[in-house]
Model the fold of this input.
Amino acid sequence: MPKIKSISAELTERLNWLVCLGDLFSSYKKNKNDQFYTIIKKAEIHNPWFSEQNINTSINYWESKLKLKNINAWISKYEIIERQAVEVGIVMAGNFPFSGLHDLICVIISGNIALVKTSRSDKILIDYIIDYLWNKFPISKHYIIKTEILKEFDKVIATGSNNTFRYFEYYFRKKPNILRKSRTSVAILANDTDKDSLRLLAKDVFTYFGLGCRNVSKLFIPIGFDIKKIIHGFDDFEKIKLHHKYSNNLNYYKTIKILNNEKFIDGKFFLMSESKRFTPPISEIYYEFYENKKELIKYLKTKSENLQCIVSNSIIENHVNFGDTQNPKLSDYADNIDTLKFLLTN
Done:
């Protein structure tokens, strides 16, 4: 595809596209736009993990972030100058609703051309967003292009599983790239972690059914801490077991553990298992006891390539507060790699 030469959208215009998206999300919250609602229900049927509640959670997040003051505050530290646009392939993840939107927004801001390969899991929602921008701003068709196969591109951002990462490494090895594989998040409890903190932690664990890299999948618990406090603190999310796919996972893994005579804690709508591992199956939470905070922090630093967030009450530097994992700042980049800087660098 030829590079854009005569057609240009200034930064102020591109920012207007993003504000318009924020307005779309905001108006949906207020008025339940019939067309958007139809798309949401279609997405839920296509991918049952995208429940209407979880889609609305993502909409609420993006509505709050896509305001001009927030975007300007984010990009103020970058030097964004008009330059020859390059083509940036985006291989999107689809583990939760709109999970590839941040990468698309970064490419739009940079003034480059986004070649978007959506995940099958999130295709309906992302396609709707792109179509909306195309209809509102016809010039955006030159900057946002849907594709099923990435062939010609100058840079690439690809997000996938650990298995697809190996494919990414080979296929994209000759191009400047940001390649992401599976990550997860952990929480460090302290002896004084109270019920209010645990209720907030439940959001970090169960939002999006725990499918995001920012979802807490493992708890580090001080020796002597009463685990029953965790179970009671998570009660607000008990309705999650009414979702048929989540419930099927819960019953399946519980049955497997019983048949294998494995030790576990039954939290009524989730399971807890003591393990050195970090990534449990859906409906299960791993936990591990610790005795020395400094040694634990030192240990977690050796696992940094596998971790997205560490949730705690000021126990560790650069921690995330309880309840905040699903509310990242626009400058909180996946894998802690500055996507916008990558896109603005020749």
Summary: The domain at 11-182 is CATH 3.40.605.10 (Aldehyde Dehydrogenase; Chain A, domain 1).
